[in-house]
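Researcher: I'd like a structural prediction for the single chain below. Treat it as a standalone chain; there are no partners to consider.
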Amino acid sequence: MNVKGRFISLEGIEGSGKSTQLNFVVSYLQSKQIEVVNTREPGGTLVSEKIRAVLLDNELPSMHMDTELMLMFAARIEHVKKTIEPALNAGKWVVCDRFYDATYAYQGYGREIDLKRIDVLRNFSIGELAPDLTLLLDVTLEVSMDRVAKRGNQDRFENEEMDFYKRVRDGYLTIANKNPQRVFTVDATFSVEEVQESIRIKLDELLNE
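Model: Treating it as a single chain, here is the predicted structure.
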């Protein structure tokens, strides 16, 4: 009888260090002999990656916020049905760069779309599926903007104004406060090693459950 896998998501505003820490999480779990699926949103399947390209394309005309929201969920349905659920059902652990919290933070708080509308789409598209653990990497807006500025070419979201990112960050912190059992907030302004140590402790707790 297969034991269902565990689901970990990483969240945070631009420049929070998610990519670095996601690689750490994957490597740490693999060192514990756990089979891991490393994925991302929007993305994670061929169809979802195509949708991601549209969502991030800085050369396209600005899209209506509802179009953006629906594209996010279209990509998520493919991702959940084709990648996440099959992996979990096979007993694998899934580590995902962003999941539905990002939609609440960016489209809900950032774009100021009614959160209840997002609730309806979430329930319709993925039902009760939720991460077992969400690592929220939190940085100040100043740190975020400084790191993004150093990247060079920026995508459609990275080009947003400071006010947008203030709403997104506040949204993430609100989500964390409402979901303390699932969301673990890490001060990502500390060194990479210090952040990883905080994450390692939390991963050990999950491994020992």
